[in-house]
Amino acid sequence: MKRVNIRRISIILIIVLLSMSLISCKRELEEDIVEGEILEEDREEEILDEEEEEENDDDEDQAIVVVDHLGREVVFDKPAEKIVSGYYIPTSMLLALGLKDNIVGIEGKADKRPIYKLAAPEILELPSVGTMKEFDLEGAVALEPDLIVMSVRLKDAVETMADLGINVIAVDPEDNELLNQAINMIAKATGKEENAERLIAYTEEKNQMIKDLVEGEEEKDVYLGGNSSFLSTASSKMYQHSLIEDAGGNNVAGDIDDTYWADISYEQLIAYNPDVIMAVTGTSYSKE
Predict the structure, then answer these.
(1) Between the CA atoms of 220, 224, 230 and 234, what dihedral angle is there, to the nearest 10 degrees?
(2) pLDDT at 64 over 70
(3) Which superfamily does CATH assign the domain made up of 217-279 to?
(4) What CATH architecture applies to the domain 64-212?
(5) Quick one: average pLDDT of 212-233?
(6) Which residue has the higher pLDDT, 282 or 169?
(7) pLDDT category of residue 17 using cuts at 50, 70 and 90
(8) Is residue 169 within 8 Å of residue 157, measured between CB atoms?
């Protein structure tokens, strides 16, 4: 009888121990499951955060950033499609880059530019945004452009446009290097980088051809009259100065470096005693 009781007690103890062990295992399992769910939630949050960071990185990678000649960073979400040109040099660059159909507004007095009539007469029908002296801010804004290309000389207007949320690239293409930089800026903003490479390669080839042609020739002193007055001439800050030099000439006004088109006197012109006198196209005077 005593052995039976001991045996029963032993069995009961074993059952109790097993039950306690099962309960403990169950609790541990439940704790592991809860912990696992928490870890899984944390992991999902980490994955979402990583995906969000990757999306932000992708957005940054896709953004087009152009640094203009004023040192400003201009950011585009996508290549600019509607473009306004503030003066003739960027207009010419836009045409050369194959962006004729993207121009929605151009500088005033465009009909005075013979090259437009030859290359793209239809742009002469586009709205005018004025000149560098009298730029039409309201008219430019009304055209709702993705990009306005303006001269660095219109810094105040550039900043005004930027404050209105309009992307503006300020350019100063007054020598070959600066011109190429301006071409690359516009090309990057419009997705025309390949066209820019071909255009720059072509112009550099032609520039070198001209230098080769005049190599060894006697240098001539050249005076270049501006379009507003014969006594307005190109200083060393003008692209025309580099053209004269590349053609083997010496710009007699090359010592002027504190302005662009410089006004001189007849006395100064006589003192220059140039070998060659030239005038730009579209002048308000004749050779007589």
Answers:
(1) -130
(2) yes
(3) Nitrogenase molybdenum iron protein domain (3.40.50.1980)
(4) 3-Layer(aba) Sandwich (3.40)
(5) 91
(6) 169
(7) very low
(8) no
pTM for this model (two decimals)? 0.76
Record the tokens describing residue 20, joined without a space.
Answer: 């306690």
Residue with tokens 């121990």: 17
Q: What is the chain's length?
A: 288
pLDDT of residue 273: 96
- Give me the helix-helix angle, 193-214 and 239-246, nearest 10°: 50
Q: Which residue has the higher pLDDT, 171 or 45?
A: 171
Nearest to 116 by CA among 133, 129, 103: 103
Report the C-alpha gap between 236 and 266 in whole angstroms.
20
